[in-house]
Amino acid sequence: MEEIDLYSLMRPRKVCVCKQVSESEIIASIQNGANSIEEISKITLASTGCGTCRRSIQNILDRELKVGKIN
Predict the structure, then answer these.
(1) DSSP states along 1-60
(2) Residue 8 lies in a domain
(3) Cα–Cα separations (whole angstroms), residue 62 to 11, 33, 59, 66
(4) Residues 2-12 pLDDT 10s
(5) Contact status, residue 15 vs residue 60, Cβ threshold 8 Å
(6) pLDDT value at 68 more than 90
(7) Residues 14-54: pLDDT tens digits?
(8) What is the DSSP letter of 71?
(9) Residue 12: what are its φ and ψ, rounded to 5°?
(10) Domain at 54, CATH number
(11) Residue 8, phi then psi, degrees to nearest 5
(12) How much is the pTM?
């Protein structure tokens, strides 16, 4: 594995670059009861900057809520 690939695995993926919010932080907010982008934004500040991450946040929310219903 190349060195740069190793570093990318070690750092959490930032979904919201403006506010430096990682995917794991968004998932944690969903697991703690957030069930809308507005609630996720209130908890994490994600999507309160430029807003380009809104679709990614919605995709994560949809995926996590679907997984939650299966378990």
Answers:
(1) --HHHHHHHHSPPEEETTTTEEHHHHHHHHHTT--SHHHHHHHH-TTSSS-TTHHHHHHH
(2) no
(3) 24, 13, 5, 6
(4) 555 555 556 67
(5) yes
(6) no
(7) 999 999 999 999 999 999 999 999 999 999 999 999 999 99
(8) -
(9) -70, 140
(10) 1.10.10.1100
(11) -70, -30
(12) 0.79
Report residue 26 as tokens: 């968004």
Higher pLDDT residue, 69 or 31?
31
Range of the domain at 18: 14-70
Q: What is the C-alpha to C-alpha distance for residues 68 and 41, in angstroms, rounded to an integer?
A: 20
> Whole-angstrom Cα distance, residue 2 to residue 36?
38
Token pair 């809104």: residue: 54
**Token digits of residue 47:** 């999507």
